[in-house]
Structure formats: structure tokens, C-alpha cells
């Protein structure tokens, strides 16, 4: 029985150590080494190998190395094989750090001051309290909830939007299409932490921006395809949005000639908001392997119908 890891090799080497210590009965292989393909029961990958079902006929479980599964073609993974996304403490902690940094930067006008510094402009703006600022998080899943909890601690007026109804102490909760407009109308700083699905692709568009208060800030930490980049540039030009912080782009790396690179009111980072951490992710996967063997519910099981 073996486990095949197909992702970043340094993290893979650490997983191999932890697996050897905790489940010595499972052989651990780092792609492109596979051992006997018929022995492969478990696969963890960012991008699964081609011809998955034919190559590994006894596969029982597929893990995504990331929190999302939008990079997977789920139709290539036989329906009887559960697909599990990454739910692990290190990834959550990294996202909470980045989202907090970005929201505080938006709140304290950091992007404007960075632009002013480049222009040699000394121009203070009023300092507002967190309690006067309304933050809204699209997506109240593992990451969205953790981010909301932290931001609530700063005193921001926090709200979240999800597909199903939620109840979270101190957080105004909105759900579904019917709740979206009201959620947007009360949001000064909008953070996207949605999974990329057929329903959420292109959601950050002109149509959505028009429901935000004028001068709102967009922070996209989900996926590049959530955002219609031309609509963002247009909204910035019209001052419908005052600034944007983007960690993800439609094409990564962002092409050199793309206007976002030079835009004075856009802050860009290269998809580093958070990353799957070697030790905590190995623990999460080992825990799910135990659950799988004992017939318990898997943590992060993907619903193929919903796409996340
Ligand atoms: P979860 O699956 O735990 O949460 C997803 C949330 O989005 C849920 O609250 C869900 O609602 C909501 N949602 C999904 N579809 C819709 C919809 N159509 N309308 C309204 N709400 C919707 O995911 P995570 O929190 O773990 O991760 C979220 C995403 O963050 C990942 O998919 C990935 O794209 C991104 N990410 C980005 C990283 C980066 O470095 N930039 C790193 C890690 C993740 P409900 O609760 O009702 O199901």
C-alpha cells in the first residue's frame, strides 16, 4: 500500500519523514517516482497525473495540496474516489495574517500613502477608528470565518456572505443571492475568500462593484478568475473603488505589460497570501487517512456537485 505525493519536493521530503514515523506500513513516494502503480491507494497533488484511473487502478482517496480544488478536472477522477481539499492550521494562520495586514492597510490608507511617497507628497488624511469601518468577507468557510474572527477583535464592523445561512457571534451574516446586495451596501472593505466555482467565476465585476459604497476597497485573496480585471480598472478610474489589494490574478505570473502592474492604487502580491505548511498539512492528511480507515467523515471532503 502506498501514498503518492506530487507537489513541491521540499515539503514532500518532510511529509516522507512524518509518514515514516507515524504510518510505516504505508510506502511514501514523491513524484515522479511512483513505485508499483497498483499499490498506490492515496494521492496528494496540486495537479493530478494524467490518466489517473488507468494508471492507479486501486486509488481510494485524492487530496488537493491547496485549500481549493478549482485546479482539478474533477471529471477525470472516478466518482467513487473521495476528493479532499486542504484544511490545515498553518494555511489558516497564514491567511489570517495576510487578510489582517491587507484590511489594516486599506483601513489606514497605506496604498494612498505609498503613492504619495513616490510623488514626494506630504498629505495627512483623517485617522478613522476601526469601529467606524465596515469590513465584509465573501465566503464564510474555514478561512473566511477565521479572518472574520480576527478582524472582529480589532473592533471593525464585520459581516460575512455565504451560500448557506450562518450564525457567528458579533458578525452580521448574509446568505445567497438575496443577501448579496445588502451585504455589499454596508461594506467599505471587501475581502474575497470564495472558492472558484461555476457560480463564483467573475463575481467581482462591475455589477457587484456598483452596489458597494463609493470609494470601497477590494481585497481579492480567492482566485484570479473571481475578478473581471477590466471592470476593476474601470471602477478605480471612476473612483467607484478607491484601491485594490490583489494576491491572485487571472494569468499568473501577471504578464509584464498588464496595466495592473503600474496602477498607483493597486497593491499586488504573487499568490502568497497563504501556503500549505509542511508539518501541519502532513498531520491533517494523516488524520484524514485514519478517518478514512475507520470509516469516519473526512475533513474537507469536496462536494463535486457544488464544486468546493
Ligand atoms: P471553504 O470551502 O471552507 O469555504 C467556502 C465559503 O464560500 C463557504 O462559506 C461557502 O458557503 C462560500 N460559497 C461558496 N460558493 C458560494 C456561492 N455561490 N455563494 C455564496 N457563498 C459561497 O473554503 P476555504 O475557506 O478553505 O477557502 C476559500 C478559498 O480561498 C479557496 O477555495 C481558495 O480559492 C482561496 N485560497 C487562496 C489562497 C491564497 O494564497 N491566495 C490560499 C488558500 C485558499 P457555505 O458555507 O454556505 O458552503
Automatic annotation (TrEMBL):
Gene Ontology MF, one: oxidoreductase activity, acting on the CH-OH group of donors, NAD or NADP as acceptor
Coiled-coil residue spans: none
Gene3D superfamilies to which the protein is assigned, alphabetical: NAD(P)-binding Rossmann-like Domain
Residue stretches making up the D-isomer specific 2-hydroxyacid dehydrogenase NAD-binding domain: 102-273
Claim: Oxidoreductase is one of the keywords in the record: yes
Keywords of this entry: NAD, Oxidoreductase
Protein name: D-2-hydroxyacid dehydrogenase
Organism: Litchfieldella anticariensis (strain DSM 16096 / CECT 5854 / CIP 108499 / LMG 22089 / FP35)
Amino acid at each position: 500500500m502506498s501514498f503518492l505525493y506530487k507537489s513541491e519536493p521540499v515539503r514532500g521530503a518532510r511529509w516522507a519523514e512524518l509518514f515514516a514515523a507515524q504510518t510505516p506500513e504505508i510506502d511514501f513516494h514523491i513524484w515522479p517516482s511512483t513505485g508499483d502503480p497498483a499499490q498506490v491507494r492515496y494521492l496528494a497533488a496540486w495537479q493530478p497525473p494524467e490518466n489517473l484511473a488507468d494508471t492507479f487502478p486501486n486509488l481510494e482517496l485524492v487530496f488537493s495540496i491547496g485549500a481549493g480544488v478549482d485546479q482539478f478536472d474533477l471529471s477525470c477522477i472516478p466518482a467513487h474516489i473521495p476528493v479532499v481539499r486542504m484544511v490545515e492550521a498553518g494555511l489558516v494562520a497564514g491567511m489570517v495574517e495576510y487578510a489582517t495586514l491587507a484590511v489594516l492597510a486599506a483601513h489606514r490608507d497605506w496604498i494612498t500613502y505609498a503613492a504619495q511617497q513616490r510623488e514626494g507628497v506630504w498629505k495627512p488624511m483623517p485617522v478613522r477608528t476601526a469601529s467606524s469601518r465596515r469590513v465584509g468577507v465573501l465566503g464564510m468557510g474555514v478561512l473566511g470565518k477565521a479572518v472574520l474572527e480576527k478582524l472582529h477583535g480589532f473592533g471593525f464592523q464585520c459581516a460575512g456572505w455565504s451560500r448557506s445561512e450562518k450564525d457567528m457571534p458579533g458578525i452580521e451574516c448574509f446568505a445567497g443571492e438575496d443577501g448579496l446586495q445588502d451585504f455589499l451596501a454596508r461594506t467599505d472593505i471587501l475581502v474575497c475568500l470564495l472558492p472558484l466555482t461555476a457560480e463564483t467565476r467573475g463575481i467581482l465585476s462591475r455589477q457587484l462593484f456598483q452596489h458597494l459604497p463609493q470609494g470601497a476597497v477590494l481585497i481579492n485573496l480567492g482566485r484570479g478568475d473571481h475578478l473581471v480585471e477590466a471592470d476593476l480598472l474601470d471602477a478605480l478610474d471612476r473612483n467607484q473603488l478607491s484601491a485594490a489589494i490583489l494576491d491572485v490574478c487571472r494569468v499568473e505570473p501577471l504578464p509584464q505589460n498588464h496595466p495592473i502592474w503600474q496602477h498607483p492604487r493597486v497593491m499586488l502580491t504573487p499568490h502568497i497570501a497563504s501556503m500549505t505548511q509542511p508539518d501541519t498539512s502532513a498531520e491533517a492528511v494523516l488524520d484524514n487517512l485514519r478517518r478514512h480507515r475507520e470509516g469516519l467523515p473526512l475533513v474537507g471532503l469536496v462536494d463535486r456537485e457544488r464544486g468546493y
